[in-house]
Amino acid sequence: MSEPAILVEGLSKRFGPVIAVDQLGFSAPKGAVIGLLGGNGAGKTTSIAMLLGLLIPTSGSIRILGEDMLKHRYRVLGRMNFSSPYVDLPRRLTPRQNLRVFASLYAVADPTRRIAELSEQLALGEFIDRPCGSLSAGQKTRVALAKALLNRPELLLLDEPTASLDPDTADWIRQYLETFRRQTGATILLASHNMAEVERLCNEVLMMRRGRVVDHGTPKELLRRYGRANLEEVFLDIARDRSQPVAAPSEEARPEAG
Ligand SMILES: Nc1ncnc2c1ncn2[C@@H]1O[C@H](COP(=O)(O)OP(=O)(O)OP(=O)(O)O)[C@@H](O)[C@H]1O
């Protein structure tokens, strides 16, 4: 059997007294789409930053595409990429200029052609030569995704890929990601607060609370286990530390209106 795309064991990160990630462990087979869910402060962004080699773990190990990330990250960084709404591209450069810089960092062959390809696929044409600082949130997200796909990554890490997008653009991005995964066989790990998105895209979901994975499974398994109709309800059960679904309050128990 081939090595998993991601293998994380006993991964922890402390910031002084704060334990942001606490003994995290999971593996992602190649070609999987893994959802990382958890409330604010659960440790999703810190985990992604460690997977990217941007933060040094306090302890634990990370293997990506068969390489030890802590010892040999330069062997594997060129085969992965990421996008996050929290990381802005240089604002004075246009998307085309930004993409050129990143294409040279990733040593992309024939960057002009690759940028034209992505510009067409992600419909960047209308604003590709305007400064990034002047773009709307949705336009910036598409540019960030183009940057993340420049090097045809085998592993794509996405932090909130559809944050601040209107429903139509968000749906379009999800469809794009599905097609990208199907056509390339890439592995995707995405952190999201959008449960419908996770239900649609992911074959495995990791539920995080206080830096730990407190439950995991396919969306269907989680729905069955918690007896819920959608992942949003499962998420609330887990975030509020209810191992069993709780019945809605009866009419008498509800506070009086007005
Ligand atoms: N540089 C830092 N210094 C100190 N504490 C930090 C730092 N980065 C993160 N933390 C803390 O680590 C915990 C996990 O934060 P993290 O950003 O990973 O959560 P998250 O799941 O991505 O949250 P959100 O959904 O709000 O983005 C939080 O308590 C946060 O305050």
TrEMBL record:
Give start and end of each ABC transporter domain: 6-235
Superkingdom is: Bacteria
Q: Which SUPFAM superfamilies match?
A: P-loop containing nucleoside triphosphate hydrolases
What GO MF annotations does this protein's record show? Answer: ATP binding; ATP hydrolysis activity
> Gene3D superfamilies annotated for this entry?
P-loop containing nucleotide triphosphate hydrolases
Which InterPro entries does its entry note? AAA+_ATPase (IPR003593), ABC_transporter-like_ATP-bd (IPR003439), ABC_transporter-like_CS (IPR017871), ABC_transporter_ATP-binding (IPR050763), P-loop_NTPase (IPR027417)
UniProt xrefs under CDD domains: ABC_DR_subfamily_A (cd03230)
One Pfam family linked to the record: ABC_tran
Keywords recorded for this protein, A-Z: ATP-binding, Nodulation, Nucleotide-binding, Transport
Q: Which family does it belong to?
A: Belongs to the ABC transporter superfamily.
Name listed for the protein in its UniProt record: ABC transporter
Q: Which organism is it from?
A: Hypericibacter adhaerens
User: What does the organism's lineage look like at the top?
Assistant: Bacteria, Pseudomonadati, Pseudomonadota, Alphaproteobacteria, Rhodospirillales
